[in-house]
Write a structure and sequence with these properties.
The chain contains 13 helices and eleven strands. It is α+β, with helices and mostly antiparallel strands and 368 residues long.
């Protein structure tokens, strides 16, 4: 899923994006949690959980390899989505196909494959040359492929050809890969998009039977921040959850933790529906880093309070938000997201103002 604001930009080197996504891989994956029933026939619960941790460890190495050698496989392109790296989409879907269609050998230390739809479809989405690039890069990260000549210019996989996939360094990774691949295809509530990189995020929560408190997810995403900023983020989250707001997480070209109130809706809302009604959010992106974005619509109702805010915040609020081209005849900078405030050390100077602003905006938007 991508957000298209209509502006074509030059991507940063894939090494920069690798550092970005590496920072959001889960650090503390529990060793004990109940798995969803769909996964019970793959392996024991203990081995699946160990396999997921091994897969996370592989992704850490994968990101390091992207930093050191990714430039040989993916050059920056002009695109409307700065996070749209085709090489990563190819790798993501190749791994999913391997995990989903592969069958364990007798010793459960390799996956045997005769079908890789990504590669063997009548009109594959990835050219044979690009397919080979993906396989070669995965060998740099510890995979072994038996049955394919990796020295060939292009791969030619037929329905009768058997490929054996191994990860000699830690074979239990293949169990984690299979569980995560099945979860991505069969357990995701939202539509799967070709340009998603879900598997590369190692979202183990998808295979948990229990619901996950989004506060725990938020804590994972803010862990690269200084401790005091982490504390403030948690305070804001808890404050508005206690006020009755709902938080949802959405991932497109950014990571969003969006807050709104859905109590008065007469129909069940999807995560995307709730996101569209957000009043404010935490957002994390390569372009803007960590920030708050507030969709302020009722500032005229508490103008006397805004006059007491710092001048810098008053100026931002006065500018409003919306399409950059329509409002200020400027190139698109995602202004429709809301009034954006950098979530860094500078926010401590306006911490009290931020809370007062959100309190008033939420109160008037909800008609309280």
């Amino acid at each position: 899923m991508s957000v298209d604001h209509g502006e074509t930009v030059m991507q940063k080197p894939i090494s920069e994006y690798a550092k970005f996504i590496k920072g959001f891989l889960p650090v503390n994956i529990p060793k004990n949690y109940v798995l969803k029933p769909l996964l019970k026939n793959i392996a024991s619960g203990e081995n699946i959980r160990k396999g997921v941790i091994a897969f996370r460890d592989f992704l850490l190495l994968f990101c390091d390899r992207l930093v050191s050698e990714g430039h040989l496989y993916a050059k920056p392109q002009k695109t409307k989505n700065p996070a749209d790296y085709q090489f990563l989409h190819n790798i993501n879907h190749l791994l999913i196909d391997i995990g989903y269609y592969g069958k364990f050998n007798e010793n459960n230390n390799s996956l045997l494959i005769t079908e890789i739809p990504l590669f063997t479809a009548s009109k594959p989405k990835v050219s044979s040359i690009k397919q080979m690039e993906c396989l070669r890069f995965l060998t740099l990260c510890g995979f072994t492929f038996i049955g394919i000549d990796l020295e060939a210019k292009a791969v030619n996989i037929t329905d009768t050809q058997k490929i054996e996939v191994l990860y000699p360094k830690n074979p239990i990774l293949l169990t984690g890969l299979k569980a995560m691949s099945i979860a991505d295809i069969e357990l995701r509530e939202t539509r799967r998009y070709w340009n998603d990189d879900n598997l590369l995020r190692c979202d183990y929560r998808l295979i948990k039977a229990e619901n996950t408190d989004l506060l725990d997810v938020l804590k994972d995403f803010i862990q690269p921040l200084p401790i005091e900023l982490q504390k403030f983020a948690v305070e804001l989250h808890q404050r508005y959850i206690n006020m009755g707001m709902t938080c949802v997480m959405i991932i497109d070209d950014q990571y969003h933790f969006a807050y709104t109130c859905v109590k008065n809706n007469q129909r069940a809302l999807s995560t995307r529906d709730i996101y569209q009604q957000r009043i404010w959010e935490f957002a994390i992106s390569m372009k803007h880093g960590y920030c708050l974005a507030v969709r302020a619509k009722k500032t005229d109702k508490y103008a006397n309070i805004i006059k007491k805010f710092s001048l810098s915040l008053q100026k931002k609020i006065a500018q409003g938000y919306g399409c950059d081209r329509k409002l200020r005849n400027e190139r698109c900078q995602g202004g429709c997201q809301g009034i954006r405030i950098s979530f860094d050390d500078s926010i401590f100077d306006i911490k009290i103002d931020i809370v007062n602003w959100l309190d008033n905006e939420i109160s008037f938007q909800l008609g309280k």
